[in-house]
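User:
Can I borrow your eye for a moment on a structure tokenisation matter? Would you put together a sequence-and-structure record for a protein of your own picking? Please set it down just below, with no commentary around it:
AI:
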Amino acid sequence: MKKPKVLPDPENPIKLLDLKLTPAKKWAAGIPAVTAALSDVVEEGIPFRGVRALFTMNQKGGFDCSSCAWPDPDDDRSPIGEYCENGAKALADEATMKKVTAKFFAENSVNNLSKLTDFEIGRQGRLAEPMYLPENGTHYLPISWEKAFEKISTHLNALHSPDEAAFYTSGRTSNETSFLYQLFAKEFGTNNMPDCSNMCHETSGTALLSTIGIGKGTVKLDDFYHSDVIIIIGHNPGTNAPRMMSALEKGKKNGAKIIAINPLPEAGLMGFKNPQEISGIIGNGIHYADLYLPVKINGDMALLKAISILLLEMEKDMPGHVLDQEFINEKTAGFESWAEQFKNYDLPSLAISAGLSEQEIRKAAEIIGNKRKIIFAWGMGLTQQPNGVDMLKEIVNILLLKGSIGKPGSGVCPVRGHSNVQGNRTMLINEKPTKEQLDKLKEVFGFEPPRKRGYDVVGTIHAMHEEKVKVFFAMGGNFFSATPDTTFTAAAMQKLRLSVHVSTKLNRSHLIHGKEALILPTLSRSDIDMVNGVHQFISTENSMGVVQSSKGILKPVSDKLMNETHIVCNMAMATLKDRSVIDWKSFADDYDKIRDVIEKCVPGFENYNIRIREKGGFYLPNAARDGKFITTEFGDRAPFTITSVPENELAENEYMMAATRSHDQFNTTIYGLEDRYRGVKNERRVIFMNQKDMDKAGFKAKDKVDLYNFDDGIERVAPLFLVVPYEIPERNTVTYFPETNVLVSINNVVGESNMPASKFVKIQIRRHWENPD
């Protein structure tokens, strides 16, 4: 076999293990989830420390889970445990007593560390002290905090323009830190603030802001309990938001019908065994999906159009019983023009494009038909499609037809993937701040903030590659492993003069670095944060707009860690010195003072310091939730949006690939090597394929293959994957990220939101090239 033109760089090591395959599960959670949750705590050697923290996590007055952003119940919370399997794994990961010290870095060069897999890198332990990699250095060296801030300030102040710096934010960052972080960037002089939302739900914010006037979901947790129809589309709750399944269980028991739409028949969409109930231990659990629609990758738009056609037809047969005409007349704009488009569509063609039968689509329309309390919940299966913004607008169209926004038991629910990614945006972490936001900062602080739009994630990578961005500062996260086009991004990051990462654990972004690099170790959510002898708390916002306090309880693993707020304040004081008009030290000394200025700058935070101390926190204002749609062009009406159905043509030798996470993974953090629900154990370099496609190509289970992408005329290759037969639409495939990020072109983005379209990658699959050596 011919050797590929492009071999993987050290940032993408190739190691195959002993793949074990078992039948895919038909239900999620149950006793196996409890066992898996507790086993990680035991494996880390912290049974007492870990279990104590688990009983505090997500409780009122406790600390917020650093995993997903699914909300906690407003009323009483489970005394057994208000967390899921992934939350327990996240806690074990950060509560470990294993430490990565200067001795570790002295014994391990950057080059050798880069040959480890992401799982192996993450298992090394908590970062224990600041580290510095000099230009042309082979090993990270210890550095004092004072010297680290001096190094940062020297680089930042040497730039020709503030726009030669970019400040990235992860979703785990608190409201207090996020507000100060964006404030520093703006006083420094740039809006270059890429953040993790640019890679997960920027699409949601873009679509919702332009249609219902707010870039957030409109439902509360209680709405799931009283909904008539819950539609889960492009999302796998069993793995990505396991606590969502308890809400679905309550809705199901109260009579809700559930429609699951996804290329893969995920266990979390099929059934649920609640481990906190007897029926979940010895019973058969709850069968979730009343209807499962195995839509093709990016066939969702055709499905949504087909449902709309059927709803319009049903309204003609039963006037006033299907559409909410009163709502349409009083609360929306453009209905007639929107309805007119369907003269150009027909159900058979749309069904083919969706990869479904007409009968399956009719069943969906019948379930929705005479119902008003409807919730659409989605994940990155939609937001990371090239036409993701349009698909979400089409979802809004259906809800507007039914009058199902701004009423109890109904609305839109983007399922956010990180614990405070929504709060970051609320705290003005945004590369495109509004005039009103900037004017308010000027009024409160007395400096002129920059007005020029900054770089998002994709823009930042391009700018680094073109050497327009020379200093990159990351507040949390694993930027490199989260981003697309691995080889291109690696080359971009290696052109930086300085890369800085504020982190709790070692990750691959520390190993793909600028000419100089800093690792700044910080506290985790579960750690005690003491400032001037006072045990501090921070605040976060969940995916349903609840702002709540979070107060760590564990002794930090090292006395050389610094909380994120102090890192920002010290960087600001070292960089801006006397030219700053902000009293950064006062913010470092007292988090209440940070919340006082947030109250002045961000709507909805009145009496912040009083309300944040209330058990359970408080809801932020949400006009759309209250039935008020405030859009610039249409006033107080929500517009119907005319969209189009894409033609997803594949060449004879092409397949469509979507990258997803395994069950033993949260975002870029790999907790283990078992995708329990899909029946994959001890391996991540796998590609799920339809058996008919395998037969046609002559592949058998566990055959070794290489994956290719040729976007932009560039040959990209992800070598050495194992074929796994799976129930998936023909010509569709699924792999894990970040292993296949190398195949996602930096130019393959979502229209309007500019997010990487990692769920829509055209690939070729060839037998693996075997090295004769």
